[in-house]
């Protein structure tokens, strides 16, 4: 459990730093790890190879000296043997010493890099085979490899060749320094490239994040930027397209709000005008008739006045009733969506002379949430109004259904149709009408789809999921 929390804490800390820091840090770690591994393997493998090569050279020298020593010892020419030994020591940086000992351990010939090698532990092999004996030892703080080889004649002594690796270490150190200089150069270039790459990757994301914050504050600014053609470039282009769409929708929403406010004011003016012109005049006539009835001298004079009063009251009530229906149909509140649609379709047919086929599924013959019924009714109103104004259609089909907790409304016509892309750039009235339908569907959590092609009619699909409550479907 503790390991799990430690790993989670490490991941949280890793996610807390910026992407740029992550990229540069990871590249740095990779370069450092690769460099360290390269230096370590180079030092190890090169050191082993050079040591092996040095030991082979020492074995060869010991074999050659063993062959030469036998003849020179027999002839007593020890001076020549000493010169040969000294020549080998002077000509090789890896040979630290050469000693030729007799069978009793007395030095016959010797040469060494230091002038005096006191207390040098040299022992003759216990056998007289021609196989060299190789052993390592420490002498005055440095590693020495002693190669001992018996002379060919039995009991004639031993050749000792001592090897030092100081020159190998110095050579390796020089090469490692050169490698480190190149690695430092590669490290610098790698960090520079990693920073450039991280900047190239994170700059578009940072720019989009800043613009998203501005968008959250209501600043719908569109910037003309050239993104790349990679995945981040595609993301940037999609983000810019989203900004344009949001900006256009916000513009249309503002225009729609202005249109709603204007329509509200126009409706108030119309209601005021109708109240003044119709209802007010009717009430004035009613007052005049009441005054005349009050001044009548007999019941015979009052009776026709009452008939006239009843007619005026009926006309006034009918005018007020018509005005209320125009504002909001009673059937929508009292009987529900289906009844309201039947009434509206009947009025639409009588007014426009277009055949309308309304089909209602059994499951849809019920009440739905009030806001959803209002949205579906108004969308149908707008769709039929657009068909009457623009479609030149002869037949309209309306389907209302409810299945799997999803309310469905389909309005189709056989009119002239239109191009959706051109419609988005058409007159503000047409554009705002379509946008208003989308907005109404969105406000009730629904989805509106419009399909249309020139000369192929138009289809409008509305789907609204209805959330079930404890008592069943929310209604």
Brief summary:
This protein is α+β, with helices and mostly antiparallel strands. It has helices at 2-16, 19-75, 78-91, 166-216, 231-294, 299-327, 330-334, 337-352, 370-391, 420-423, 428-443; strands at residues 95-101, 107-112, 133-139, 142-150, 158-164, 355-360, 395-403, 406-413, 447-452, 458-465, 468-469, 472-473.
Structural descriptors:
five-stranded antiparallel sheet, 3 domains, alpha+beta, 475 residues, Beta-Lactamase, rod-shaped, five-stranded mixed sheet, 11 helices, Heat Shock Protein 90
Describe the structure in your own words:
- By secondary structure, the chain is an alpha+beta fold.
- It has eleven helices and twelve strands.
- The model has no long low-confidence stretch (mean pLDDT 78).
- The protein has three domains: 20-174, 2-Layer Sandwich (Beta-Lactamase), CATH 3.30.450.20; 239-327; 331-473, Heat Shock Protein 90, CATH 3.30.565.
- The chain has helices spanning 2-16, 19-75, 78-91, 166-216, 231-294, 299-327, 330-334, 337-352, 370-391, 420-423, 428-443; strands spanning 95-101, 107-112, 133-139, 142-150, 158-164, 355-360, 395-403, 406-413, 447-452, 458-465, 468-469, 472-473.
- The strands form three sheets. It has a five-stranded antiparallel sheet. A five-stranded mixed sheet has the order 6-7-8-10-9, covered by helices on one side.
- Strand 9 (447-452) and strand 10 form a beta hairpin.
- Helix 4 (166-216) runs parallel beside helix 5 (231-294) and helix 5 (231-294) packs antiparallel against helix 6.
Cα(first) to Cα(last) distance is: 50 Å
Q: Report the CATH topology name of the largest domain.
A: Beta-Lactamase
Biggest sheet layout? 5 strands, antiparallel
Number of DSSP E strands: 12
Strand content: 15-25%
What is the number of domains? 3
CATH class of the largest domain: Alpha Beta
Q: Helix proportion of residues, in percent?
A: 55-70%
Q: What characteristic shape results from the CA principal axes?
A: rod-shaped
Q: What name goes with the CATH superfamily of the largest domain?
A: PAS domain
What oligomeric assembly is this protein in? single chain
H-E order: HHHEEEEEHHHHHEHEEHHEEEE
The main sheet orders its strands as: 2-1-5-4-3
| CATH hierarchy: architecture of the largest domain | 2-Layer Sandwich
pLDDT < 50 stretches: none
Question: Compute the gyration radius: what is it?
Answer: 53 Å
Average pLDDT reading: 78
Number of H/I helices: 11
* Class by alpha and beta content: alpha+beta
